[in-house]
Amino acid sequence: MALMKITEPGVSFNDRSTKRVIGIDLGTTNSLVATVKDGSPEIIPDKEGCELLPSVVYYGDAKQVSVGTDALKFAESNPADTLMSVKRFLGRGIDDIDPETSMHNVTSTSDGVSFVTAMGEVNPIQASAEILSTLSRRANQSLKGDIEGAVITVPAYFNDAQRQATMDAAQVAGLNVIRLLNEPTAAALAYGLESKEKGLIAVYDLGGGTFDISILKLHAGVFEVLATGGDTSLGGDDIDLLLYNWLMEDIGIGTADLEFSMRRQMLAAVKVAKEALSNSESVVVDTSFVKAHKTEVKITQDILTSIISPLVARTILACRRCLKDAGITVNDIDNVVMVGGSTRIVSIQTSISEFFGRELLSGINPDNVVAIGAAQQADILAGNASMNDILLIDVTPLSLGIETMGGLVEKIINRNTAIPVTRAQEFTTYKDGQTGLKLHVVQGERELVKDCRSLAHFELFGIPPMVAGSARIAVTFQVDADGLLSVTAREKTTGREASINVQPALGLDEGEISTILEASFSNAEDDINARKMVEQRVHSRHLLDSLAAALEKDGDGLLNDSEQSEVRFLMDKLENVLLSKEIEKIKDATESLAKKSEYFAMLRMDRSVRDALKGKSVSELSEEVGS
Ligand code: ADP
Ligand code: MG
């Protein structure tokens, strides 16, 4: 695959005066900010020396918004106003939210969801902006001046809506985003693996809310992302929930019987226990605050291991799929980088090390590694770094395409294509004299539009009326370095153009990304058959429609009665078999009709040539032929 150098508009690679730039890991659970000082990256702590900023925002009263640990204090007393895991809601709709797992009162709005708090409605972009502002202020103070640019990381699986929502949050926070960077890519950079000669690297990132696996290829100091995979709804939060369910069963209380604040308190206790288990064999959870027959519960390593084993198995399944996408096997991997707080769990380390058959790279604190890589990337893009030859090639997580006749998808950019990327394809008109074209941009792996995700609709007008199939419309898909998509349609003779920047209204269903991939594998054969069927029907319908129009216009003049009725007989026959689902019969009937009408088509052609010849000089004609 060809490598592209990623340069950012407005960022000079030659300007060597040091710019104040930062890297931000905007996490579901925790967020961090880092910068490169005198060539070495460091996390910027708050005044108390804390590096992790809990991604929590409290909207308690009209005057004060609290962020981080200050906000977390209200989690128990005032859970509805204490927004947590807002990243899960970025760029998503009300239908994506499972009321069982959501601790917040959410309401549907025209552009997604909002949380209902004491301060009124707050959307996920505003809440994320509060987190970004807090980190930005922290950096301003530490670096003694305004921040000129930031690299913000996002999970590799974020779709366009989610990436756009992140950009919007940054804008609200007054940050100049140099670029969005996939979290696993940042982690590989943090490990400085570019100093090695070459190698294949797997980045396993299990955080609070998402799981990402990426396969990176390193050669001659260049990183290339071969493939990414994962699950947008798998992380420490889910481990907490599993452990919570187990514990509630153990003490004999139905999960729904606990009131909101107690449930939250219990979840918090379970989380503390889980984290403590990475340093000890067993922990005891105090359950005396709920009325149960047990006042405490002991949780051992073994219990945790067995509770989370289905979840770990799911991550391994995603790893296998990603290796397959990258076209390599587990034995080809040279390094495995562990990222995210949940990778501290001992049994996860054991399982993953076993799966890859090697020791894991976990030298850098798994909480910090993404922010550090982001800071290094910001430093390079701002031109501060002495080595600006590291290229990061990211990929598109899902295929992007356009709807064609009959509800089929024509993929323009395949999934796992390195970005930034521009791909163009030519389309034409279906009907004679057609002057407009509706474009429907979709995302997904399936063959039929109905099985894919709709991203946007737009229209191109002013196509000069021409015979069906002779207009040439170039449709260009461009994905920039931040993963944002713009689609342009251009009619070639007039240069008329229409375009759209895709900001899909709402995001995907919970877990849809992974099911999209699973569905595309399990339905592959059906999809191909369905596609063939639709293509055949479109072809047959087109033949019928154009013949009907031609008969109407020229039938009487060019064919005698029996010739006409023979054609009409075969047309009726084709109309009838089209009602069936038997593709072979439809194909045969179409072929017979095409054959029978060949003679008619030839007569029409002859006549139009004769008409064209009338009153024209030979030189005019040869000019036309030659043009
Ligand atoms: P995110 O990237 O989603 O913000 P982080 O990488 O900060 O998440 O990881 C947060 C998750 O890691 C939380 O679910 C937290 O409970 C979990 N975690 C942190 N430390 C440990 C630990 N020692 N053992 C198990 N899980 C941990
Ligand atoms: Mg993370």
Measured as a percent range, the helix fraction is 25-40%
Bound molecules: adenosine-5'-diphosphate, magnesium ion
| Strand-residue proportion | 15-25%
The poorly predicted ranges are 1-16, 387-391, 503-510, 616-627
CATH class of the largest domain: Alpha Beta
Query: Structural class of the secondary structure composition?
Result: alpha+beta
Instruction: Sketch the major β-sheet.
Output: 6 strands, mixed
User: How many strand units?
Assistant: 28
Q: Architecture of the largest domain, according to CATH? A: 2-Layer Sandwich
Distance between the termini: 38 Å
Fold-level CATH name of the largest domain = Nucleotidyltransferase, domain 5
* Total of helices: 15
Name the CATH superfamily classification of the largest domain. Answer: ATPase, nucleotide binding domain
Whole-number tally of structural domains = 3
Write the layout of secondary structure elements.
Elements: E1 21-25, E2 30-37, E3 40-43, E4 53-54, E5 56-59, E6 65-67, H1 69-72, E7 82-84, E8 106-109, E9 112-117, E10 120-122, H2 124-143, E11 149-154, H3 160-172, E12 177-182, H4 183-190, E13 198-206, E14 211-219, E15 222-231, H5 236-250, H6 260-276, E16 282-286, E17 296-300, H7 301-326, E18 335-339, H8 346-356, H9 369-381, E19 392-395, E20 400-404, E21 408-413, E22 418-419, E23 421-427, E24 437-443, E25 453-460, E26 473-479, E27 485-491, E28 497-501, H10 512-522, H11 524-558, H12 561-578, H13 583-596, H14 598-613, H15 618-626
The protein binds adenosine-5'-diphosphate (ADP) and magnesium ion.
